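Schema walk-through. Below, the input block comes first and the output block second. Nothing else is stored per chain. Lengths vary across the set, and this one has 261 residues.
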Amino acid sequence: MVTVTDEMVEAYQRDGVVLVKGLWADWVEMLRAGVARNMANPTHQMATLKPGEPGYFFDDYCNWQRIPEFAAVIRQSDAAEVAARLMQSNRVQLFHDHVLVKEPGTTKPTPWHTDGPYYFVEGRQTVSFWSPLDPVREAALRCVAGSHLWPKDVLPTRWMAETNFYPGDHDYIPVPDPEAEGMTIREWQMEPGDAVAFNFRTLHGARGNHSAIRRRAFSLRLVGDDARYIDRPGPTSPPFPGHGMQPGTRLRDDWFPLLRG
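--- output ---
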């Protein structure tokens, strides 16, 4: 069982991000096999590099139902119990899985953003686990401490087109430059199976991969007691067409399985 201390819970509630050492240390080979299966047969792969930009970035999500390795890790690992502790929630419900692979020489950083505004779920009790399957010294995830408590969400944008994701921007704050503005950035060197846990509203990005090895990462998005469906002013990402949910209701558990509670 992965240990979650009171100090980790306090840090997660305060900063919106914490490192969980060894969350999937015993599952690394299974996750690597799942990533290989996913890369050989992608479904929702998104373009994130413009023509002429160096490297290759593989980005695919919502595959747990067809990739048995992902389903086993989601249902059999300690992830749900760790999530419950960090979120301070009785319920833990699956939202989606996400695979991100930066090949060597993919020097473009992942832009600063928050995940929450892209999703059709809203609540304070949320957590994403981002876990590298290769040693990370340089191509790390970076999170701005305390940004999950900001009064407004950060403006969601389309990275390729560099346009707003939804019409209008009055409900959001512009994407900040955390380094230029002196914000506190949390970043760790990580071993395979370690995980950064962060709130859906936490501002984050990732460095480019300047190393000689690929950086495979598996991410899992989970929600807790207070998570509810919300209408957005445009298509969300992931879209989940035909879900039939109404504003203010919990996510339907036949599509988004209850892992705890």
